[in-house]
């Protein structure tokens, strides 16, 4: 039987419903899809155009970064160790309002996409402006993306008012209608920057176009307090009253939640996107992941943007999620490595409505995966390969990445992005952005 | 003027009292010491036997891992995601009592030392058994070590009683008296496993031999509660009543502390060794790092052993420390990247009583340092090189490591350890240890 590609691997981490790990198996790919996974000695019946043998490697489903702002990679490390207000109002926003345009978003998206592919991410859920540039960059690089159509109640360089946010967003969506890698959601920034009227404009469009919604919410306790002052209710209850809660809603951060909130989320099958490193770095509060999982809520994982992380490394984010959930819940058996891996893969696919196509390595799914070399000092010995992946490995061990069966990284070398050019452009942007960096150390030394 | 080595680097991160970062400077090394740090164009007056130019790199003081159990690297990933009691009593202790001997400690220490050098660690503070093997392995590899002479009130394969723990420990100390890289402390395991009588035997020896003490304490709230039941006071107050508090005491973990405890620690200049990832993984509680720093206490950083982490990666540990302190304190400006770097370097040196010799890159100090390549997608752009190091870099970017001016890693290749042999021996040990691994996933699939 014919096939495009056969990959023989020491381990195949399927992330299927039974969490199966297969040893010495072969994955058979035809064009963009996985058509078989079977013991290597039974794979002779396939006559694959290419056979790759990875005896030291595990194959795993590509990571799905369920919340990021790719273009902000140009701002990574611009302003650290600052209180949230100062961080936003004195550093990030001034830099953004002065600099963010088509070119910024193109360069930042390319930098982020290069970093993501190198780190095994094969799909990302983005929220930013100039979405045509991010969509184009993803399409050129061959990475899968869910683009958020931004909605915010004030003008930016991207759009002047709600009408323009919507029309420009839908225009871009239309431009990419034939590109299978590029999907779209509506992305209202947050309940505190988007009015009820704006939500009410978006809602019928969501239904009509079959689009989901991707929104920051309950990021901090003060966001909830403020909402009570302005609206007399929490952001979550506001969205509920607007009849926006449902399985097509992805709520990001969600640190400040009470028991009733959690019941409401569970009842409505809302997806929660957990960004542990960003929540820590900005001291936003702790997402009660253990309680959310106990309530049966689908929790996916995101890195947030590089300005508040400062990387877009899903391998590290899984580790942070697993460790933090144990610390916060006080239960060392909370959020196992296996569950963290599900959050970074299949749960992200569910949140995006793509779990029939991606998020696990199973026959019939798209061939979105990475290979990681575990035969090194840092990850040996191996008792449970998923534990080694989550708790001991680092992303530099990821050697190869495929999306839709296309090899985007070949033995650590990107095939669709010229890394040196990206580095060069990044340094040019550094020159323009650096004036917005005003670092003073603890000891007063600049 | 003659010199052994001149290293020209893009950045030199000194971690001196003023946190200075020097650009395009040269470090001049003669034998084991740093004899000058000056602008590259002024370095012509030195005639170094070797000149290395690292235009994409930062030099930084080697990390000091202030608490680990090196040999436990063979157990990394043996038992994860379990409650502390089950983890210890059903997995770690049975494996240890069946397997830990000279050969285990030799193999485990070599694996750990290889991992540490590759990750930029140049000194580690160890606590385990068969300390002659760990000391020998460190000496052969050329890494600096502070060996804990173990004290525990029950017999192990290493020693049968207090007399033997002390005599065997001091014998090893004597064997290494001419080895400048190998230092010693007393390491009573913890207040709950060491009696007042045993502490009273050690104390005069500490004074007589000028040795410090390295002990686990206040790891969990229940340890403190239990101590009240047995002794009528907290472990800290017990050690205080035994007149053991002072600048030669390193207390590890310290999650369960009240305001009075913190005052007592500060008054006595006790060093706290913070192990954030281990505390998270075992759900031990949160060390109040922000309060400790505010009280002027010296806080150093350790990884703990690989069985509870599961790596011995100080770069990652700095990041976890900085992020976690913000989350726990609710202050995003708490524990900056700069402070985290101090905890991983000079603060560790202070804890070990070695701050005159190591912990920063300054003229007159030992040449213990690493070089890290920051010219890559993951760490560009760079606004503050210390932020990039702590929040964005990963250890695979570390290319070269020196201890006492000797190059232990040369462009990613270890010079004193045969990595392939270590990997081979590790896999042999895996065969013996694997029967102690009883993993059952959330879904019941083995």
Explain what you see.
- Two copies of one chain form a homodimer.
- By secondary structure, chain A is α/β, with parallel strands linked by helices.
- Chain A has helices at 84-99, 102-118, 131-141, 162-175, 196-209, 221-231, 235-241, 259-267, 276-281, 289-294, 314-329, 337-344, 346-351, 385-392, 419-433, and strands spanning 2-13, 21-30, 33-39, 47-61, 63-68, 121-127, 144-151, 182-188, 212-217, 249-253, 271-274, 299-301, 369-373, 398-403, 406-410, 413-414.
- Chain A is built from 15 helices and 16 strands.
- In chain A, α2 packs parallel to α3, α11 (314-329) crosses α12 (337-344) and α12 packs across α14 (385-392).
- At the A-B interface, α2, α9, α11, α12 and α14 of A face α2, α9, α11, α12 and α14 of B.
Short description:
The structure is a homodimer of 446-residue chains. By secondary structure, the first copy, chain A, is an alpha/beta fold.
The N- and C-terminal alpha carbons of chain A lie at a distance of 65 Å
Major sheet: arrangement of strands of chain A: 3-2-1-4-13-14-15-16
- List the chains of the largest interface with their residue counts: A-B, 81 and 81 residues
Classification by helices and strands of chain A? alpha/beta
Query: Please, what is the CATH homologous superfamily of the largest domain in chain A?
Result: Metal-dependent hydrolases
Tally of strands of chain A: 16
Number of domains of chain A: 2
| CATH C-level name of the largest domain in chain A | Alpha Beta
Kindly identify the CATH topology of the largest domain in chain A: TIM Barrel
Rg of chain A is: 21 Å
> What is the CATH architecture assignment of the largest domain in chain A?
Alpha-Beta Barrel
What would you call the shape of chain A?
globular
Quaternary state of the chains: homodimer
Portion in strands of chain A: 15-25%
Q: What ranges of chain A have pLDDT less than 50 throughout 5 or more consecutive residues?
A: 440-446
Fraction of residues in helix of chain A: 25-40%
């Amino acid at each position: 039987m014919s096939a495009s590609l056969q990959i023989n691997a020491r381990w195949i981490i399927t992330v299927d419903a039974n969490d199966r790990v297969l040893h010495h198996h072969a994955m058979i790919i035809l064009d963009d899809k996985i058509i078989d996974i079977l013991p290597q000695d039974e794979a002779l019946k396939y006559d694959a155009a290419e056979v790759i043998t990875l005896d030291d490697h595990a194959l795993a489903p590509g990571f799905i970064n369920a919340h990021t702002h790719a273009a902000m990679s140009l701002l990574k490390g611009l302003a650290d160790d600052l209180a949230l207000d100062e961080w936003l109002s004195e550093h990030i926003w001034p830099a953004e309002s002065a600099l963010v345009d088509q070119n910024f978003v193109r360069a930042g998206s390319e930098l982020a996409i290069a970093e993501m592919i190198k780190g095994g991410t094969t799909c990302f859920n983005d929220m930013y402006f100039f979405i045509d540039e991010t969509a184009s960059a993803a399409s050129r690089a061959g990475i899968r993306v869910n683009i958020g159509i931004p909605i915010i109640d004030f003008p930016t360089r991207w759009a002047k008012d709600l009408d323009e946010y919507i029309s420009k967003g839908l225009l871009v969506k239309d431009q990419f209608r034939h590109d299978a890698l590029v999907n779209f959601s509506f992305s209202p920034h947050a309940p505190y920057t988007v009015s009820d009227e704006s939500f009410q404009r978006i809602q019928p469009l969501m239904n009509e176009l079959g689009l989901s919604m991707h929104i920051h919410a309950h990021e901090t306790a003060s966001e909830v307090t403020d909402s009570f002052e302005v609206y007399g209710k929490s952001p979550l209850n506001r969205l509920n009253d607007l009849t926006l809660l449902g399985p097509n809603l992805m709520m990001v951060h969600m640190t400040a939640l009470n028991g009733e909130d959690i019941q409401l989320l569970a009842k409505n099958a809302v997806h929660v996107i957990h960004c542990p490193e960003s929540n820590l770095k900005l001291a936003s509060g702790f997402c009660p992941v253990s309680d959310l999982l106990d309530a049966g809520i689908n929790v996916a994982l995101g890195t947030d943007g590089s300005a508040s992380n400062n990387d877009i490394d899903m391998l590290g984010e899984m580790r942070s999620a697993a460790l933090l959930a144990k610390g916060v819940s006080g239960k060392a058996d909370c959020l196992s490595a296996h569950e963290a891996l599900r959050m970074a893969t299949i749960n992200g696919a569910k949140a995006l409505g793509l779990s029939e196509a991606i998020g696990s390595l199973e026959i019939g799914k798209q061939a979105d995966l990475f290979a990681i070399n575990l035969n090194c000092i840092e990850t040996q010995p191996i008792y449970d390969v998923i534990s080694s992946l989550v708790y001991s490995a680092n992303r530099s061990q990821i050697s190869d990445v495929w999306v839709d069966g296309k090899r985007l990284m070949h033995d650590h070398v990107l095939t669709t992005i010229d890394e040196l050019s990206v580095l060069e452009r990044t340094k040019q942007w550094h020159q323009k952005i650096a004036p917005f960096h005003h670092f003073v150390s603890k000891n007063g030394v600049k």
